[in-house]
Amino acid sequence: MSIVSQILFSSLLLIATLDVRAQTPAGMAMIPEGSYLPLYAGNNRTNVAAFYIDKHPVTNGEFQKFLESNPGWKRSAVKRLFADEGYLKHWLSDGMYSTAEKNSPVVNISWFAAKKYCECQGKRLPTTAEWERVAEAGWTVADGSSEPGFNEWILAMASKPAPRSLPAVGTAKANYYGVWDMHGLVWEWTLDFNSIMSTGESRAAPGTGDGLFCAGGSATSGDVSNYAAFLRYALRSSLKAGHVLQNLGFRCAADK
Prior knowledge:
- This protein has 256 residues and is α+β, with helices and mostly antiparallel strands.
- 29% of the residues lie in helices and 8% in strands.
- The protein has one domain (28-255): paralog of FGE (formylglycine-generating enzyme), CATH 3.90.1580.
- It contains seven helices and seven strands; from the N terminus they run H-E-E-E-E-H-H-H-H-E-H-H-E-E.
């Protein structure tokens, strides 16, 4: 390739990169079309269309702004159909978190509340396939399973006890896509979290999932070393949309 051709190629690549950045909504990362390996799909990878996802989980401060415009979702007003009695129980009052927790991820949030928040931002919750595709990314490569030390780091993050006070978002490493806190901070809601009960971990995964609840639960897994994925699977299969947990938050996604 001549020097002129190299310069032209580099210029076109820079223009394309700047164009992608200009189109990406503020605070979000663009995830290109690709695939991920569902937990219970053998070695069959699932294709995922390009999408946007928040770089950080939603914080207490951001959720409080949402409540100011949507008072029906405050702790004292929310219908029990949409959130159980633990909803926002870590807040000091009906609409106030402690100053130290402003930038910590909001937790004790039901799926209904998380879904409504995303909709009010013109976004949506990520699907399980989308979330897992981002979570599969390592620090420097798109597939973290090939990155030395990455699986061990995830295992350490998934195994540590939840702290009494959650740290601020963005305090762990960003992954290959520039997305933070996919591991080790909080669990996160997905749009189709309960789809695993009928079709495996993803609606796109083959089969009906008839064998997912037998004793040899890892027999059909494409990656038996992915311990954190087994934990996420177990959590999602135990949840109902009105449930809240002190270590369960969310982030938003959007179509590209």
